Amino acid sequence: MKRPLPSPRMITQADEAMLWLRWLDKDIGQILWARANRKAWKGISWQHGISRATANRRFEYGLAVIVLRLNGKAVPRKRSMAFVIQRTG
């Protein structure tokens, strides 16, 4: 069965979400995009040459950066990924 075509509103929302990836490093943005497209962690790990745990940490960090930016807050540059993730949680 074919999926229904997206509505104009859904396309606009997807375009806006893709712009958020510009706030991230290239590799982290690629991990987020791959997970958004339901790619398996194993494939992502192999593609980037990292462990699954590292890929997951980068994924969580990318989401945290997007959340902070959408809320109008600055992303601390001289802090660890874990600190940024905890700041949003």
Tell me briefly what this model is.
By secondary structure, this protein is mostly helical.
Plain-language structure description:
- The chain has about 90 residues and is mainly α.
- It has a single domain (about 20-89), classed as Arc Repressor Mutant, subunit A (Orthogonal Bundle).
- It has 5 helices and no strands.
- The mean pLDDT is about 95.
- This is DUF6362 domain-containing protein.
- InterPro entries: DUF6362.
List keywords for this structure.
mainly alpha, 66% helix, single chain, 89 residues, 5 helices, Arc Repressor Mutant, subunit A, DUF6362, DUF6362 domain-containing protein
Topology:
Layout: H1 8-20, H2 26-36, H3 41-48, H4 52-70, H5 81-88
Helix pairs in contact: 2-4, 3-4, 4-5
CATH class: Mainly Alpha
CATH fold topology? Arc Repressor Mutant, subunit A
Q: Ranges with pLDDT <50 over ≥5 residues?
A: none
How many DSSP helices?
A: 5
Give, in order, the helices and strands: HHHHH
**CATH architecture field:** Orthogonal Bundle
InterPro entries: DUF6362
Protein name: DUF6362 domain-containing protein
Pfam family, one: DUF6362
Domain DUF6362: 2-66
